[in-house]
Amino acid sequence: xxxxxxxxxxxxxxxxxxxxxxxxxxxxxxxxxxxxxxxxxxxxxxxxxxxxxxxxxxxxxxxxxxxxxxxxxxxxxxxxxxxxxxxxxxxxxxxxxxxxxxxxxxxxxxxxxxxxxxxxxxxxxxxxxxxxxxxxxxxxxxxxxxxxxxxxxxxxxxxxxxxxxxxxxxxxxxxxxxxxxxxxxxxxxxxxxxxxxxxxxxxxxxxxxxxxxxxxxxxxxxxxxxxxxxxxxxxxxxxxxxxxxxxxxxxxxxxxxxxxxxxxxxxxxxxxxxxxxx
Length: 278
Description:
By secondary structure, this protein is an alpha+beta fold. The chain has helices at about 10-30, 35-40, 50-65, 85-95, 100-120, 125-130, 140-160, 170-180, 185-190, 240-245, 265-270; strands spanning about 130-135, 135-140, 200-205, 210-215, 220-225, 230-235, 260.
């Protein structure tokens, strides 16, 4: 993840446009949902499609200085909650669960409109300013990239739930992937237990096709290229890669969609331990 001494500085205008565009895309998608689709289980344990939208409302409301609708002690225990961030999210999920889809959609449009107005008034200096983010101390711009990442992921949680694929190769996806990749070295070295001196290539096909290289030399890191063949190469569709990193699908169930060359055992170990997002 980011080092606080070297903050991530991102151009405000294109990032702001992409984030607002993501909110609008989700809004268009929600306009088309039937009542049954709002209650469809999402890929996230314990959450319906409506709960996913309530979560988006909650995070943007928090950034606007709005408190959750219920206190922490009023939320029943849930087996899918494992940390304080998850517990905070549930205060919004639980507090909005009895709302109708129409009310949720109106709430979503209101808070994203307010947040869009707030972002448009900010300067580049505001985006470069130090901020606490979900991944630790960094810039406010980095925080907004994590917001785009989160919203993009949840857009596709909704799409996967209702079986309506969308564009996964545009500028919004590129920002989301950049944020996702910041955690991939951790997944490879810590969760996948790749030994020192090894290297991994993810050969992605599909809408975000590219080669992603991770070298485990001291601290695992992304590198532009490797000096030689990777210790193990995992070839898969970029849509599957993002779902595996996000813990949205079972790596065992989707093992047949991953081709491993080189060190097969290490490749399997990494593929089955890619999930690292909160």
